[in-house]
Amino acid sequence: MEATIVTDNFKHYPVLLKEIISVITPQHGGTFIDCTLGQGGYTNEILKHKNTKVIGIDRDIDSKIIGKQIQNKFPDRFLFKNLKFSDLNNLKLKNENVKGVVFDLGYSYTQVKDPKKGISFSSSGELNMMMGLNNFSANEAVNNLEDKELEKIFKYFGDEKDAKLISRNIARERSLRKLDTQGLVKIIEKSKRKKYYKIHCATKTFQALRIFVNKEISELIYGLINSAKILKKNGVLAIVTFHSLEDKIVKYFFKSLSEHKSISRYEPSVKQKKIYFRMPIKKPILPSENEVKENPPSRSAKLRYLIKQDDVFDIESDILNKFRHLLEIENLGSKLWQNLLFSF
After folding, report:
1. What are the structural domain ranges in the chain?
2. Which CATH topology does 115-214 take?
3. Model-level pTM?
4. CA separation, residue 106 to residues 37, 47, 242, 278, 298 (Å)
């Protein structure tokens, strides 16, 4: 979940840029945290306003090049950190008036087309999918996890209906040879019962592997929790999602902070928590027809935002419990990593 989606010839399209700026209102000044610096689209737009400061973070070390360019232009107003979402709480923000935290959970054209990253099913060579600060690669996951473990990953992270058959065929094929990107694609193509798709038949499996390798579920959840804590009063948390699983997580988190839980009138009365956040609109903001026409991959983007109403650090949300089943699947990576360490 890094940076924004762009299309042909490396032209950069920060998705929902006007809408993001309208929501976080940088014209009023303050410090903003761009959690997916990428090509710097949001950051550069924010820094056009003189009383602003931006801390740009990205787990992809390649973004350091963009960060350096921005820092040369705004030496006193921009700082780059090579961090994951879960490390947001490690930023030194005691004297910062954090008025906005922005996430763009899409992947950039340069990331997708980078053969070293091995994100795309059209890539050749070894499976990778590591976006930075990882413990293991897709290659290590596919060639070492048990078929039942792979099935869970494909089913719950990719919503892949043929997860069981794909995982069984992976286990069979890898006993004969080490699997690479195109080897995995061929297995998926042979495993799919339905042969005609609007999207490539490997899309969901590759999405699931990428989510697993980069721990995107826990990174997003802890990124949300940390962001809500560090925001100052009237600060805005704005998130652009691109697939249903991450949007489901964001939607639930926002609702858990901005609404009281509904309680049956037949249950004993309990003291409700105080609400410190406000969700101005419940439905997501979508790209305009013009934006989708200019940048087709933006069609799946959804922007949701939340406003903090008071200066509080401790927040109450049951999001970790709500998505515990996904976190348990993600934790298969810890077991894999330990096995890889002991194999050396």
Report:
1. 8-110+216-324, 115-214
2. DNA polymerase; domain 1 (1.10.150)
3. 0.92
4. 11, 22, 6, 25, 9
> Mind listing the pLDDT tens digit of every residue in the chain (344 residues)?
544 444 444 566 899 999 999 999 999 999 999 999 999 999 999 999 999 999 999 999 999 999 999 999 999 999 999 999 999 999 999 899 999 999 999 988 778 778 778 788 888 888 999 999 999 999 999 999 999 999 999 999 999 999 999 999 999 999 999 999 999 999 999 999 876 667 889 999 999 999 999 999 999 999 999 999 999 999 999 999 999 999 999 999 999 999 987 655 556 656 677 899 999 999 999 999 999 999 998 999 999 999 999 999 988 899 999 999 999 999 999 999 999 998 76
What residues are paired with 56 via a beta bridge? 34, 80
Structural tokens at position 177: 């040879």
Query: What is the CATH architecture assignment of 8-110+216-324?
Result: 3-Layer(aba) Sandwich (3.40)
- DSSP code string of 286-305: ---HHHHHHSGGGGG-EEEE
CA distances to 221, 257, 312, 314, 342 from 274, in Å? 21, 9, 11, 11, 48
Task: Indicate the pairing of strand 277-278 with strand 302-308.
Answer: antiparallel
Which residues, 6+ apart, have CB-to-CB distance to 62 below 8 Å? 110, 111, 114, 132
Distance CA 177, CA 137 (A): 18
